[in-house]
From TrEMBL:
Name of the protein: Putative FecCD-family membrane transport protein
Primary subcellular site in the record, as a coarse category: membrane
GO BP field: siderophore-iron import into cell
Membrane topology: Multi-pass membrane protein
Record keywords, A-Z: Cell membrane, Membrane, Transmembrane, Transmembrane helix, Transport
Length: 347
């Protein structure tokens, strides 16, 4: 049986946080999300004042500033939804694999979704957002199964280091395949490259309506897996001894994470490191109980991606830097620090 390492120092305090402290953090993150959402509709190529924001939220669009707010609203909502989906899927993937390095981008799941979309564009020609989502989810699922299978080969089974290495190798291989598939097709290269970077700049209410049912389904599945994930954290043998059907619990939780990741990638492109940053931040703040961790990770993920989108618009005004680039710049050193500190041990 694989045992969870006994934490020390600040980690113990995090595990023993009382409910009132967790609730306080929950309220603080909710307030931060509201602030960054307001910043998202206020900042861009034009800075919009409070009066115009209030008027635009009430339905007015008679001035340029009010029209700018109306245009930014779907972008803000999409950033919240995609960020929540990626944050939640990162926590679930780490719980399923017991791997502190698990993240949709690091494990190649985003890249699997991208390759599936690229192949479908070239071979059959996708025409609707729903088709993009189904294809992306299928590609994400295939990549997830492949990485876990490769990481399980050899002695010791699916160790965190082997899964991380398998994910990195798979991501590199799939990225090369994506380039090989798309490059000869000049008619789709420009649009695909803008999507490939990862961002929410092309948001619209129609794309949000298309993605919402998939995100809702993935959210429900993941939240229902909170108790099984707590059992899995004790080790497979102990979880089975407590009456948990380990394989079923792991498969259902992974399905929810793949649906969230695939749908988010279909509409916003492959945005990496959000799940990794969110998962470790949330555990530090509120502990390891997935009943708290899952909803909290959704809020933190939404806040992180929305803030990254706002930052990308502010630092390069009047142009912008896609949110996927911002999260990569923040997430890469975060990833290195986790590897150095935790030495790739299991959760």
């Amino acid at each position: 049986m694989t045992l969870v390492e006994t934490p020390s120092g600040p980690d113990v305090a995090a595990l023993r946080r009382p409910a009132r402290v967790r609730l306080a953090w929950l309220l603080a993150v909710t307030a931060a999300l509201v602030v960054v959402m307001l910043a998202s509709v206020a900042f861009g190529s034009r800075v919009v004042g409070w009066d115009d924001i209030v008027a635009a939220l009430g339905g007015a669009d008679t001035t340029l500033d009010q029209a700018a707010v109306v245009k930014r609203l779907p972008r803000t909502v999409l950033a919240v939804l995609v960020g929540a989906a990626l944050g939640l899927s990162g926590v679930v993937m780490q719980g399923v694999t017991r791997n502190p390095l698990a993240d949709p981008g690091i494990l190649g799941i985003n890249m699997g979704a991208m390759l599936a979309v690229a192949l479908a564009l070239v071979t059959v020609g996708l025409s609707t957002a729903t088709e993009y989502i189904w294809v992306a989810i299928a590609g994400a699922a295939v990549a997830a199964v492949f990485v876990y299978a490769v990481g399980s080969l050899g002695r010791g089974g699916a160790t965190p280091l082997k899964i991380a290495l398998a994910g990195a190798a798979t991501s590199a291989a799939l990225a090369s395949l994506v380039t090989a598939v798309v490059l000869p097709r000049g008619d789709i290269t420009d649009n695909f490259r803008s999507w490939q970077v990862g961002g929410v700049g092309g948001a619209g209410w129609d794309s949000i309506a298309q993605i919402a049912p998939f995100l809702g389904a993935g959210l429900v599945i993941c939240l229902l897996c909170a108790r099984p994930l707590n059992s899995l954290a004790l080790g497979d043998e102990l979880a089975a001894g407590l009456g948990e059907r380990v394989a079923l619990a792991r498969g259902v939780a992974a399905l929810g994470a793949v649906v969230l990741c695939g749908a988010a990638t279909a509409v916003a492109g492959p945005i990496a490191f959000v799940g990794l940053i969110v998962a470790h931040t949330c555990r530090l703040l509120i502990g390891l109980d997935h009943r708290w961790l899952l909803p909290f990770s959704g809020l933190v993920g939404a806040t992180l991606l929305t803030a990254a989108d706002v930052l990308g618009r502010v630092v390069n005004r009047p142009d912008e830097i896609e949110a996927g680039i911002i999260t990569a710049l923040v997430g890469a050193p975060f990833f290195i620090s986790i590897v150095r500190r935790q030495k790739v041990r299991e959760l």
